[in-house]
Amino acid sequence: MKTINDYNFENKKALIRVDFNVPQDENLNVTDDTRIKAAKPTIDKILKDGGAVILMSHLGRPKGEFNDKYSLKHIAPKVSEILGVNVIVANDVIGDDAKEKVANLKAGEVLLLENVRFHNEEENGDKDFAKQLASFGDIYVNDAFGTAHRAHASTAIIAEFFPENKCFGLLMEQELVAINKVLTDGEKPVTAVLGGSKVSSKITIINNILPAIDNLIIGGGMTYTFVKANGGKIGTSLVEDDKLDLAKEILAECEKHNVKVYLPIDNVVADDFNNDANSQTVKSDEIPDNWMGMDVGVESSKNFAEVIAASKTILWNGPLGVFEMPNFAKGTIALGDAIAEATKNGAFSLVGGGDSVAFVKQFGYDDKVSYVSTGGGAMLESLEGKELPGVAAILK
Ligand SMILES: Nc1ncnc2c1ncn2[C@@H]1O[C@H](COP(=O)(O)OP(=O)(O)O)[C@@H](O)[C@H]1O
Ligand SMILES: O=C(OP(=O)(O)O)[C@H](O)COP(=O)(O)O
């Protein structure tokens, strides 16, 4: 795997694809700068070598035309603050302003191009557009893990124009190492915790990770499809009736692979999908009519914590309950505590996927696990075993 550490950037212009697609408030101020901070080590190394940096990113989905709301100029002050360098901002992507600023760029300076998605050619993977971008730099660096599942001009196609001089940035390397630690060279026992809302959205992940794991903990909304498949009563809990056979097949596959499956034994149920609904704890396969499963119960949490404590590698994707409602967040919090404790005791833990990452940040577990992925969709596709175009383009 070729990374920026294989190059000396002295007097070189590095063209770096970053993912600065960050959340903003109504005044367009950055509300979560994780992705910008995550790109800093790569940029710092190149500047320290005596190189110049040209940053390319998208922001939102502006649909191929200029839209001030999606301008990267709103992000630039935060980038300058984090890098400790006054970032130069181009008013366009491949236009006269960008060209002039690239031509005048000196070692130690950082230039931020305008949102690459202001051109339709970006998402279409247009070769000419990629070629024009490529003409700006001597070495292409892909550090945009969050966008690595897109085969776009600046994430994948552009690499063709750098047959020798293309490599991964340090964030990209870190993300790929973390996935490998779980899927290929994780110290055993390896435990995967899968939660979230639906079985159908996790099937491909389950199938792909089975050969790599020893334990599978299942929670969240998909619990009830499994419980019903096993003949249990689930009241009005979330269920995918067309996936009952599939749930049985998954359980059979787990057995075939010697993967131990842990389903919740008790559940917190409510009489309405509402934080203030009446609630009680019942056995998972004895949910009364008109009650729905909202969270895993205390006994399940204890059970899961024991499995986690005995694990050396842990993958976590998907909350165990409706954590957005405080009364039903306890099971997911207990899991966070168990994973934090195991991590403190030497286990490697990776958290990935949109809602799980939102949870760990909101509840302060991000510093207590080994690695929190900066990619939502990209991480899920990696766990599904799909080749990411942004990764493949560098390896080619
Ligand atoms: N018992 C449940 N019933 C309904 N929804 C649930 C339940 N448990 C968890 N969820 C919901 O699942 C959602 C997350 O699912 P998903 O998008 O699959 O996770 P991720 O983004 O981490 O992969 C959360 O919004 C959460 O409220
Ligand atoms: O934030 C992103 O995706 P994510 O929300 O799945 O992590 C990436 O920047 C990709 O953006 P896109 O889904 O508009 O291609």
Structure explained in plain terms:
By secondary structure, the protein is of the alpha/beta class. The chain has two domains: 166 residues, Rossmann fold (3-Layer(aba) Sandwich); 198 residues, Rossmann fold, CATH 3.40.50.1260. Helices cover 34% and strands 16% of the residues. It has 14 helices and 17 strands. The strands form four sheets. A six-stranded parallel β-sheet has the order 3-4-2-1-5-6, sandwiched between helices. A six-stranded parallel β-sheet has the order 10-8-7-15-16-17, with helices on both faces. Strands 12-11-14 form a three-stranded antiparallel β-sheet. Strand 11 and strand 12 form a beta hairpin. Helix 1 crosses helix 2 and helix 8 crosses helix 9. The mean pLDDT is 97. Adenosine-5'-diphosphate (ADP) binds next to strand 14 and helix 12. 1,3-bisphosphoglyceric acid binds next to loops.
